[in-house]
Amino acid sequence: MHCPQYTAGTCRSCQWLEKPYASQLADKQRELTDLLAGFPVAQWREPVAGEQRGFRNKAKMVVSGSVERPLLGMLHRDGSAVDLCDCPLYPPRFAEIFPLLKTFIARAGLTPYNVARKRGELKHLLLTQSQYNGGLLLRFVLRSESKLPQLRDALPWLLQQLPDLQVVSANIQPVHMAILEGEQEIALTEQQALEEQFNQVPLFIRPQSFFQTNPQVAAALYATARDWVAERHISSMWDLFCGVGGFGLHCATAETQLTGIEISAEAIACARLSAQRLGLQHVEFKALDSTGFATGHDSVPQLVLVNPPRRGIGRELCHYLDRMAPGVLLYSSCNAQTMAKDIAELKNYRIARVQLFDMFPHTAHYEVLTLLIRAV
């Protein structure tokens, strides 16, 4: 994949861009194999890969420059800005949208935030596209609410230019720190959920809910989890750290007793909407801490699925699951190192199956799905 910014040395986010893609996959598989070398693995599945360019559904752009000539991209540590509107990881349509957003910034008078001077209002633009219907979700991350009237007044023009722009919001992030967003979200459109669909399962993206950035590989990951669970004839399960419910909703049948747990209320709202759309009667999603929920129960379902953040599920939850010993654990991880540490704590389980999913081409990152079966 050719990238002019990489060639110029202005952006090196894709650290492995010069490495042949087959070598990238081999290196990731080798690292995963080494991390799990201390555990017998009954079956290794072939890695799953997708497109090498245009695979992202989301752009996180730092806004810099001036109100008349804004730049959308990133800042180096020395404060120098790089415009990334031509990044080949984004879908082709984004190249048409970014110029409109720059024009809108000028029309609305949204002064880009200057980090060195701690002045200005517009910090970031977050743009997401649904692969299902082409709908767009746009978030403006502002330092304060002072520019909201101008933003609201100018918004009809942008909506006219982008008919597929379905969800717009403003996030308030007042702190002078490298934090992407704040807690306060202000809806600027009536619709506040963007519909996506993987494998005929409706999923929804709200402004503050996490969603996978590689739809093609994410769909394969969810479908694989669904197939592995179907083999086990499961009637009850927990989906811990469930996000918008992608795993649980793929794995549940009309008869499955499913409980999904996620700390984010925004994500839970999405999961509930999906369950309603699917007509599932025995499903509930709750906005709670996953570890606290699980360890507060004296019994467990047949299967527990975990999809934790990079830190893993942690020793407390590992020891609980090892003691309660549900028949099947399905572990989806975005950090194989912490997953391996967690598996070391699960003394009563054996690894039945492992598969790598290359969600992040040209980087060292990947996702992995591991099926663990109770040993005794």
TrEMBL record:
Active site residues per record: C334, C334 (nucleophile)
Binding site for [4Fe-4S] cluster: C3, C11, C14, C87
GO biological process, one term: rRNA base methylation
Family: Belongs to the class I-like SAM-binding methyltransferase superfamily. RNA M5U methyltransferase family. RlmC subfamily.
Keyword Metal-binding (UniProt): yes
Protein name: 23S rRNA (uracil(747)-C(5))-methyltransferase RlmC
Gene3D superfamilies, per the entry: 2.40.50.1070, Vaccinia Virus protein VP39
Protein function: Catalyzes the formation of 5-methyl-uridine at position 747 (m5U747) in 23S rRNA.
Gene: rlmC
EC number: 2.1.1.189
Catalytic activity: uridine(747) in 23S rRNA + S-adenosyl-L-methionine = 5-methyluridine(747) in 23S rRNA + S-adenosyl-L-homocysteine + H(+)
Example GO molecular function: 4 iron, 4 sulfur cluster binding
InterPro entries reported in the protein's UniProt record: 23SrRNA_MeTrfase_RlmC, MeTrfase_TrmA_AS, MeTrfase_TrmA_CS, SAM-dependent_MTases_sf, U5_MeTrfase_fam
Residues the entry annotates as binding S-adenosyl-L-methionine: Q212, F241, E262, N307
Record-linked CDD domains: AdoMet_MTases (cd02440)
Pfam short name (any one): tRNA_U5-meth_tr
Keywords: 4Fe-4S, Iron, Iron-sulfur, Metal-binding, Methyltransferase, rRNA processing, S-adenosyl-L-methionine, Transferase
Entries under PROSITE patterns matching the protein: SAM_MT_RNA_M5U, TRMA_1, TRMA_2
Keyword match 4Fe-4S: yes
